Amino acid sequence: MLKIFKIVALLEGVSYLALFTNMLAVKPTNPVLYKTLLFPIGMAHGVLFVSYIILAIMLKFEQNWDWKKFGIICLGSLIPFGTFYVDKKYLQNV
């Protein structure tokens, strides 16, 4: 299950960055393309975010993570590049 979590974390981080790119780079230059891309990227990110949190909860008990580690891992999904940091710092040695 940890391997699945790492894949979901990577995809969630990429989708988060895709949302930011869409908002910061595409919206000012091409509003029509922005609106076209917003729903599919947003939906994918939403599904991946929920999956990330559910898998983190399941792994908290499976891997016996303490609450601090679990909190940092969950917080990583809210910060840009956070999932990449979590993977490098907390999931690389597991």
Automatic annotation (TrEMBL):
List where in the cell it is found.
Cell membrane
**Gene Ontology cellular component?**
plasma membrane
The regions listed as transmembrane in this protein's record are: 7-25, 37-58, 70-86
What's the protein's topology in the membrane?
A: Multi-pass membrane protein
Instruction: Provide this UniProt record's keywords sorted from A to Z.
Output: Cell membrane, Membrane, Transmembrane, Transmembrane helix
> Which Pfam families does the entry link to?
DUF3817
Cite the InterPro entries for this sequence: DUF3817_TM (IPR023845)
List, for all copies, the residue spans of the domain called DUF3817: 2-90
Q: What is this protein called?
A: Integral membrane protein
| Species | Flavobacterium glaciei
